[in-house]
Amino acid sequence: MAVSEAGISHKRRSPGREDESAILKKRSPREKVLFGFIFALFAIYALSLIFPFLYMFLNSLKDPYEYLLEQSHLSMPKDWLISNYWKAFTEMKIDDSAGNPIYFPVMFLNSVWFSALCTASGVFASALTSYCVAKYRFKLRGVLYGIAIFSMTIPIVGNTGSFFKLIYQLGLYNSPLYPVVTAFGGFGFNFLVLYGFFRSIPWSYAEATFIDGGGHGTVFFRVMLPQAWPALLTLFIMSFIGAWNDYMTMILYMPDFPTLASGLYVIESSLKRGDGGSYPVYYAALLIACVPIMAIFAGFSNVIMSNFTIGGLKE
Fold this sequence. Notes:
single chain, 315 residues, mainly alpha, MetI-like fold, 2 domains, disordered N terminus
């Protein structure tokens, strides 16, 4: 009897698949044609995203002369030079303001600590401000929320000169403290997401903590933050990816701490000027720089999609 029940349960289809198959059968021929067109459109879009990686991969395995002489860069390499990836680690370098060479491994480490500091400082500051605005009543509460919204609509194209002067006068220019101080703003997209999340948490949790003798710090760090952990993790991943790809910040404000993004940008400019270097080795370095971000997104894509919808947090 147990064997037969196991066999029946094994053959039984899940309700979700039955619903999907029923929906497909109910579609009219016109809807099926439209569905097929949309599927083909998204398939072409997906291939367009894969194309740059295929281009870099093929050219990263070629000889520099083969790359320069061939007319089409989409051909297969004659000799698969895996050594280009080792050359990217050992030979790829740029010079700092003092003329000292900075190699690829150092740029990789700079990317790690810079992205981690920017992300941790920014997400934590947003958690503080959004919690206070969402859960406490004070006179400037509405003003702060209005500033948070208004600041996201102001274009910041023309403030580079004044911001650079401010950073220099504060002593943050070319300093590792720059990402900690500048990212500790508390507003922006992270603020809006966490504000909506904290608003949905009942204040009865805090009241129960107060009855047990806990204070406001205990409520925030031991009650509210653990409940906001899925949103915090998602924001941390998204912010880390953005900081990893940021190249202009290091070029303008931290030239002696080049990351992979800023270092490869400088190397690309030198290649275009004809100052030496190898395009295949450069493409190999680009692929290596993409691997950590691709691994993070692949590993946490379900976390991102499960905690966010088009309007923000899921209910």
